[in-house]
Each structure stands twice: as C-alpha cells, then as structure tokens.
Design brief:
This protein has about 375 residues and is an alpha/beta fold. It has eleven helices and eight strands. Helices cover about 30% and strands about 15% of the residues. Strands 1-2-4-3-5-6-7-8 form an eight-stranded mixed sheet, with helices on both faces.
C-alpha cells in the first residue's frame, strides 16, 4: 500500500499540556551535522551584524580572501512549544550563498526525507542538499514539530493545524532574514504536503523577503480530493472505503468524527482531525495564484502518491511558473529503476536524473 499524502506527524492523544501563547524565534548553530543527532548549540549565529534592512540578500561584497570550507551545522528555531532542530549546509566559499529552505511532506518525515518507523530510509532530502552544496547552493532543512529531534516541540495534538506548520516555516524565513550576511537569496522548497505550506508562506510574504518558490511533488487539487484518490487506489475493502470517504466528507464540512474504525485510525484519529479540517480548507491552486515570486513546479513520472497531473493544475493557476516533469522520478525524489520499494527504503538508490539541475535552474532564476 502506497504511503498516503495526508497524515499527521505524530499522534499523542495523551498530551494535554497547555500551549504557550507567546511567540519567539531564535537561532543557534554548532559544528557538526545535526542530522546525526547533535543538539549542542555553542556557537550562536550573530543576528546583530550585517544589513539592518532585513533584505534576503545583502548587497555588500563579502571579503573572500579566506574562503570557508563546506560545512553542515546545527540550526534551531525556538517556538512556544519547544525548539525545532535542523541543519544548515553551506558550500565552500564565502557567505552569503543562495539558500534553499526545505519543508518535507506529510506524516512523521524527518529533515532527511525519511519516515520515522519505516522499514528503511531513502535520504532523498539529505542527498539533494548535498548535491546543492557541491554546486554552490546552501540549504536549511529541519525536523518539523513532533518528529525526530523536534519531537518534544509537538505540543497538544488537537491544537496543531495548518497555520502551525506555516508559522514554523515562516519562523525560519524570519531567522534567515535577520542574518543577511549569513543567508543569501531564499528559495522555499516544499515537497508533497509541504508544498502547501511553502505556497502559503510565499503568498503572504512581503516583496523582497522570499526570492523563489519550488513545489516538488506538490498537490494541485484540494487535499481532500487527493486523499480520496489515494484511498480509492489503495483500500481493497469496499465497506472500509465507503467509511473512509464518509469521514473525509464530514471533515471537509468542518465536522469531527469520534467513531473511527481501527483500520483508519492512522489517518483519522480524532486528535488529528482538527488538522485535517484545516488542511482540507486549503485550495493549493488558488493559493498559488496569489504568489508573486518566481515559481518552479517539479513532478515525477513515477510518483505513485502525487501524479504529474497535479503539476498541470498548479501551472494552470500560475501560468508563468516553470515546470519540469522528471522522467523516472518517484515521490521520494529517487529513480524508479530499482522499483518503488527501493526508492522509498534504500538510500543507495540515486536521485532521479534531472532533479538537481531543475532545482539549480530555478534557484538561479530566483536570484
């Protein structure tokens, strides 16, 4: 059964901790790749220096007499419910570099593109970041709340909605804007469900804050319709399918459903229904039509979760967007040559040929 698009990072119905209503955003960094589990933050990034205008790319010419080596360092964002942990990867040379800010897809997906608890890893996002590093582009990837190193930041599950993830992504944008000497022009890359959040952030950004938007395997239709299609393709029990579709209908109308069959709890647990209600209220194509920054759309011919037809819906909403349909690319960004299972669970499977070039092409357009 294919992994489903609409899922929630973590279900913890026993967590009733009241949410802190304050909002803060801070950052820190330390040597070492935080994807290895390092949580030290002993060398704070200087948020006081550089261009005080907050522009996403400083116009000052850096002193590059002593280029720094390529590196991956820990970066974190403080939120009311806990810190979000990530990795800032930079190429050899002098800051600021054009920077791609990643947002992963649905469910318990970590910064590297791996689903927590899955039988294997694919490292798709990690490998893309490394390829970009080799080509002179920096990146920021982070574990979303409730996942991996950011697990403790989840907060009460029933209070997690689309705006929660949008605010987190916006928080990283603000963190980067505050340090123009460290971060160059910003392109947000949203993958799968993350493309929805990336679009909403880009659409609400002030001119000059975000330089580009990349939607990779992003849905064009309403997420309720995408989920209906996925369930129709993957649920073999007709009665269970009828029940699942009925739950979606209720959630789409803004109603919660307390009695959910055990076989559907991983998707529709009552604690995550407020999130699904908020997600189903978003029209990705309509949201994209409000985006003014340079936009790229990337789809894979062998994506079994979000087919290339979704990219056509997105491009129809924003005709000036560039579109790349990558031959042989699966949902995990990997090549299909060794099969879908390998693409999801074997990190040795390479990225699909053409993906890296498509990303680099768009980052160059956004600069």
């Amino acid at each position: 059964m294919a992994l489903l698009l609409a899922a929630v990072a973590c279900v913890d119905p026993g967590d009733n901790t009241p949410a802190d209503t304050t909002t803060t955003a801070t950052t820190s960094a330390a040597s070492g790749d935080s994807s290895t589990g390092s949580t030290d933050a002993t060398a704070p990034l200087d948020s006081t220096g550089g261009d005080s205008t907050g522009a996403s790319g400083s116009t000052a010419v850096p002193d590059c007499s002593e280029p720094a080596p390529a590196k991956s360092v820990a970066i974190q964002l403080a939120t009311p419910t806990g810190n979000l942990h990530g990795t800032w990867t930079t190429p050899e040379g002098c800051d600021p570099f054009p920077t791609v800010l990643f947002h992963v897809g649905s469910g318990p997906t970590d910064r590297d593109g791996n689903s927590v608890g899955a039988p294997g890893t694919n490292d798709g996002h990690l490998q893309l970041a490394e390829e970009l590093q080799d080509r002179g582009i920096a990146s920021v990837r982070y574990d979303k709340r409730g996942v991996a190193e950011s697990a403790d930041a989840l907060g009460p599950v029933r209070e997690v909605v689309v705006d929660t993830y949008v605010d987190d992504l916006r928080g990283f944008v603000d963190l980067m804007l505050e340090q123009p000497d460290a971060f160059g022009p910003i392109t947000i890359l949203g993958h799968s469900e993350g493309a929805v959040f990336a679009t909403l952030v880009a659409g609400a950004a002030a001119p000059g804050e975000i330089d580009g938007l990349l939607l990779v395997a992003g849905p064009g239709r309403n997420l309720a319709d995408v989920l209906r299609t996925q369930l129709e393709q993957n649920i073999g029990d007709p009665d269970l399918l009828v029940t699942a579709l009925a739950v979606i209908d209720q959630l789409e109308m803004g109603n919660t459903v307390e009695m959910v069959p055990a076989d559907l709890l991983s998707l529709f647990h009552p604690s995550v229904q407020p999130y699904l209600i908020s997600l189903f209220a978003v029209d990705p194509a309509a949201s994209l039509s409000q985006v003014e920054v340079s936009t790229g759309i990337i789809a894979g011919t062998d994506d079994i979760q979000v087919p290339p037809s979704e990219a056509d819906v997105l491009q129809a909403a924003k005709p000036d967007a560039t579109i790349h349909v990558i031959e042989g690319m699966t949902h995990t960004l990997k090549d299909v040559g060794q099969g879908q299972d390998a693409a999801y669970f074997d990190p040795a499977v390479p990225l699909a040929d053409g993906l890296v070039d498509a990303v680099i092409e768009h980052v160059a357009m956004a600069r």
